[in-house]
Model the fold of this input.
Amino acid sequence: MKTRDLVLIALFAAIIVALGLLPPIAVPLIPVPITAQSLGVMLAGAILGAKRGTLAVALVILLVIVGLPVLSGGRGGLAVFAGPTVGYLIGWLPGAFLTGFISERFVKDEQSAFAQISGFFIAAVAGGIGAVYLCGIIGLVIMKGLPFFATLVGSLTFVPGDLVKAAIVALAARAVQVGYPLLPVRR
Amino acid sequence: MKSLYVEGSGLLYRLPVGLKLGGLMALGIGLFLFSMPFVPGIAVALGGALYFSLGLPFGEAVSRLRSLFLTILFISAFSLLFTPPMEVLVQVLRLTALMLFAATVTATTTVAAFMEGVTAAARPLERIGLVKADDMGLAFGLVVRFVPEILSRYEAIREAHVARGLKVRPVTLITPLIILTLKEADQIAAAIDARGLRGH
Done:
């Protein structure tokens, strides 16, 4: 791995940590303020691509394991892994990967702004919602013995907030792609 | 950024990190073998005794685990809809015990000791060419170093919005934050290579 890639991964992990330390942001359309950390996970994939994005998230999880309070609300340490919602945290890995994987293939330089934003949005929804929720729900099923389908329905309440996040990710990722492109090109 | 390690001495502080993590894993599996509340109940009492005797101020000790414990209770209330109460009780005790023991391991292990354990665990991956174990330490240091800088940059961008009478919006805030931060990568990488920190 090139030193530059290593640094990009570390800097993005730092961005994800910093986003977790910020006060929740109020956004239009939904009543509760959102925490920005899961936004960072989708952004990691959309901006750095599948491989480096996943490694940035892995680095954040490593920081959690070694006992730094890097998750939103100052959570951290091994106790997080005893929580019933740990599946959502683990889901960040495939989430960032899938977001990156789709972004690398769907978003191209010669596309219109609208096509690029749509590509990033689809990628963020598939990775940041699809993959993350799937892992989170499987985690709840394993750790609490909940029925899969009911858990799926129960977690739908969080989807509107995450759709807003995916939209923010799509706009921000496209702006970064124009200003300072880092996404590996695929043909 | 302050780690969750708590200054102290005692048997738990001297055990090797691999043993502590292995014990935690064994406990996690072991607790799932019992379906009566008795055994996980004892584990909660033991874990609580260990965790609260670490010398952490009581308020701080509670606040570290509060949100996690509330999540356990919240999810358990939801699972009462599908699961007999006795089983839910066992689940709550099981997860609470694991949470307490895990928090105890975190509080009695320095970040340096953890990093040593992680690096040692990464050596086999290094042999098959997946990662360089030393890179993990370097990346780790970079994150800890740059989080405060990103936070102050965020604050600067926010103030710039206010100074220009712009509404503070997530997109116009996050985009410059990311571009400004990632643009530093080339310089930092050059500095690392110039110092030969990664070896060749």
User: Anything to note?
Assistant: The longest helix of chain B spans residues 133-163.
